Amino acid sequence: MRKNTRSVLLAALCAACAAVLWATYNYSVAADCDAGIQSVAEVAAGKVGGKGLADAHMDQWKRRNPVRSKDWVAEEKERHKIQPPADNSYLLKGEQGKGHSYGQYTELDILTWSRETEKMVVEGSRIFHSATELGSTVAVSCDMCHPDAANTHPETYPKFQAQMGRVALLRDMINWCIEHPVRGKRFEADDPKMRALEAYIFAQRKGTPLNYGKH
Amino acid sequence: MKPRHKSVETRYMEERQAFFDDLKKLDRRSFLKVSAAALGITAANGLVAPTSFQPVKLAYGATPEGGEKSFRFAYISDSHLYEKDVNDRFARSLMRAVDDVNRLEPQPDFVFYGGDLAQLGQAAELELGAQILKNLKVPLKIMVGEHDWYLDMGEKWQALFGKPTESWDHKGVHFVKLLSVIEEDFWTARGMKPMERMQTVAGLDNGVQKPFTVGPDQRAWLKKDLEKLADDAPVVVFSHSPLYKIYKNWNFWTDDADEVQAILKRFKNVTVIHGHTHQMLTNRIGNIHFHGLLATAWPWPYAPEGMPELTVQMTRPDPFNPQDGCGDGEVCVYSDGMVDKIHNFWNRNPVTVTRAYMSSRGRQSGPAKPNRPAY
Amino acid sequence: MIDRGVRDTNRALHWRGNGRVKLLEGGRTSKGMSRRAKTVSAVGATLLAVSLSCATQPGDWLGRRVPQTQHGAAAMDYQAREYDKLIPPADAAQVPCRIDPHIWDAFVPADNKMTVERVALGKKLFFDKRLSKDGTVSCATCHDVTRAFTDQRPTSEGIGDKLGRRNAPTTMNAVLLQTMFLDGRSPTLDHQATLPIINPIEMGFPDGESAARAIAGDVEYQQMFKKAYGREVNYEDIGRAIGAFERTMVFLDSPFRRYLEGDPKAISADAKEGWRLFNEKARCVSCHHMSLSNPLGTDNRFHNIGVSARHQDFEELARRGLKALQEDPSERRLEELALNTDMSELGRFMATKNRSDIGAFRTSMLLNVGITPPYMHDGTVTTLWDVMDHYNKGGEANLFLDGGMEPLALTEKEIDQVVAFLFTLTDLRFAEENQRQMRLQRAQALKSRPLRDDQTANRKKLAFEDRIRK
């Protein structure tokens, strides 16, 4: 008799635990994963539609990527003088393109290239001027020592960078500055932010002859 | 002993030997003259090799040429403080400057602070600055920079430090302090919040802000203040913006500079001492002599255009040393209003821009021109 | 039994402070020993300590017997024989291993080309105590072959047991430096070699002529000088010959170099991480240039990192120094002031009078750094862990501090990794000594870290704060 009671109680305890676990599992959502949707069951039950899912994911993305206004390019250009990319409209003149499939450039091409290139450079300017984007732990941004990217000398790379004791490219020096004066975390070489920064720095030195190795 | 390649050291040894040989030929009086002259010539500018054997008196306690009655004040400028736990570096640099000044012997008459004590004009930043500057042994005179002003339009600064514009006399010299970073309102139309306004002004290359001005009110005040002075009265004007026009993009600029200079034109010797530019800068327009102050926080590059001829540029600071190209300094004021400006660079030899250099428009006792472009 | 316990202890080359012997126990830790062995070692250690407190007797070294001479140096002939094992005389005049022959030319002066005769002469002079006034000090007293070509003491001991003010740099690879002496006041090895001979507290001759006279009577020397330089015995050639000998002291074959040259297993994972930190967070490489083209680990420049600011008021010292030099600017006075007074602490300033050089000393060469304690210009930094503590807190604040010195906020693990890397810079011929130093220094570091300052290192407290507080 006692044995039976014990096993019954044990079974009841297990069931209770299972119920608790089941309940908490369903409600313990990793806040950012699952985009706030409460359970897989809900989606399966059709309670949350495709739009709901999309909205939830968008909210999640927005949380991770702070709001950028629609006119961010124009706003950034108003704040900081940015060299425009080269003018390729000469490609539309004359007859050279004729008969060459790959040489048939259109106005839309010229416009797209210019716009996209400019956007990358403007993005670089945005990061260049923002201690937060650079990940600085001391609230220092590049423009504090390099207004308008002055004194960055991208045309002198590759060169032996004394501070590093070895030959460096521009992005190596950018990373060095991020590690030391800016006191942030180094970027990977192909991080979009690093690429944008390089783009901006090169853009600001438009017209300067290349002179690699110059100290 | 003739090595094939003359090492830096061999050159130095030869120079040194030559120097000793020359010294032996000098009598005591000439020796002192050599030292004093060398003080003016000693370059932080790179022409002189790093091991070059130049006699340098410590700039502290330098006896001025000319022997006229004079006094000295020290300066510290452009510290751009954040709170200590946000950025320790800037606070440390300001403390170093205070240490420098406190150890001058003899102590200067007062210390002048050239503006931009805070970086973003926040109360905590200004208070930190006030707290650090309290450790100075001699009285402090302090000026407004744009970084101090545009968060709350000077409320906290004035509560801490008093009047942004004033004048006083000291040992026969008339000193004036201006608020020369007044910008036309660009923020109301854009609906900017105070911090947005401050961030805009804080960006040196931010084109949304407007040029610095002294403004009609202050110009009128200045005219009145100087009215009673004779033409040969010694006048020193402190201003954060340079009171002349260098490079508009970076607000190395005072828009109504011409009007201000017109007010100062009648005086025989006027010295303008300005901050904002974070570099060694020298200019002369008519009888107005302009001297830039070094920053403690970081050095700016020289502007791509508008550089005055008299300026001998400092060599490019090394980014490994965040205090290279920075420092503090002293000004030796003569009874006729001329000054010797001593730039006390950290980790470099001090550079003195002498009255002789200014009065001869750069022909005499100038620092050697650097053998490399500054930027 | 005592012998066995004692024999297991490694060759106990000591690391002394200022003449007093401080025994740092090397060898096995007590963990691996039985109680019996522990007792035996304890007894042995006591005996050792007792015997070493009267340390100038030859033959009382344990393990390998290293016969001794004055001032704590190993006997000169013993040293000379050890040197031959390291650098066989036949190889002496050749371009050293691992150096490009074209580049080597730049290091050899035109008036002192390497020949077997010159090297042999230099070697004899290097180990010759007759070059000191009282006949007890030779170059090898402070640049001891058995002690990493230095003396592993904070400051060196010269004639009359006088102690100097500066730590003796190692002569290993000194040929590759651009200046000699910690304040760089000598341009070449040949010139440097002549100066300690006439320094009153080092080897003590009043002038070069007396030094030359002291050995000119030796027929062997007369012949060797004739063969080497075609001249009589003279002071300048003494310097040249010693310089020629020192040019053979090239020891570049470290595990780290092999790693750089392509052997991934040459150094440990910790050391590799230490190398990364060296180049990044710890900010070492900017002054301690280290790459395949520059293996030395120095930029040959002079920086004030605050070591001597720990011990005195710099500003006052600088003022006094300047005043003294204005009164008597002769070279002799400069040397005197530089070496024999407090002004020595002003470093390069005494040589250049550039205010930017106040308290600045040459960036030390890092090659073989593991075996050349204690560290810094005055030997006041005992282990490499102490060195890291010094840099981690941004040096010592003073008015002339190099602004590149910043608090680094390195963690203990990171410090261990950089130290592990530094120990890989020792030439493989000294691997045993390197291991011994690692043990000794680690034991010392575990006992005490006097320079450690976590508050400053982590930027909670700022370096100049205390100095300005009213």
Please write out the topology:
The complex is a heterotrimer of chains A (215), B (375) and C (470).
Chain A: H1 2-27, H2 40-44, H3 50-64, H4 72-79, H5 107-128, H6 131-134, E1 159-161, E2 166-168, H7 170-179, H8 192-204
Helix pairs in contact in A: 5-8, 7-8
Chain B: H1 8-25, H2 28-41, E1 70-76, H3 88-102, E2 111-113, H4 123-133, E3 140-142, H5 146-149, H6 155-161, E4 166-170, E5 173-177, H7 194-202, H8 216-227, E6 235-239, H9 257-264, E7 270-274, E8 282-285, E9 288-292, E10 327-334, E11 339-345, E12 351-353, H10 355-359
Parallel strand pairs in B: 1-2, 2-3, 5-6, 6-7, 7-9
Antiparallel strand pairs in B: 1-10, 4-5, 8-9, 10-11, 11-12
Helix pairs in contact in B: 3-4, 4-6
Chain C: H1 2-7, H2 35-53, H3 76-86, H4 101-107, H5 116-126, H6 139-142, H7 189-194, H8 208-216, H9 219-229, H10 235-246, H11 255-260, H12 269-279, E1 302-303, H13 314-327, H14 331-340, H15 349-352, E2 361-362, H16 384-392, H17 412-423, H18 431-447, H19 454-457, H20 465-468
Antiparallel strand pairs in C: 1-2
Helix pairs in contact in C: 5-9, 5-10, 12-17, 16-17
Description of the structure:
The complex is a heterotrimer of chains A (215), B (375) and C (470). Chain A has 215 residues and is mainly α. In chain A, 48% of the residues lie in helices and 3% in strands. A two-stranded antiparallel ribbon of chain A has the order 1-2. In chain A, strand 1 and strand 2 form a beta hairpin. In chain A, helix 5 crosses helix 8 and helix 7 packs across helix 8. Chain A starts with a helix and ends in an 11-residue tail after the last helix. About 3% of the residues of chain A have low confidence. Chain B is of the alpha/beta class and 375 residues long. In chain B, helix 3 packs parallel to helix 4 and helix 4 packs parallel to helix 6. Chain C is mainly alpha-helical and 470 residues long. Chain C folds into 3 domains: 235 residues, Cytochrome c-like domain (Cytochrome Bc1 Complex, Chain D, domain 2), CATH 1.10.760.10; 158 residues, Cytochrome c-like domain (Cytochrome Bc1 Complex, Chain D, domain 2); 51 residues. Chain C is 40% helix and 1% strand. The chains are: A mainly alpha (215), B alpha/beta (375), C mainly alpha (470). At the B-C interface, helix 1 and helix 3 of B face helix 13 and helix 20 of C.
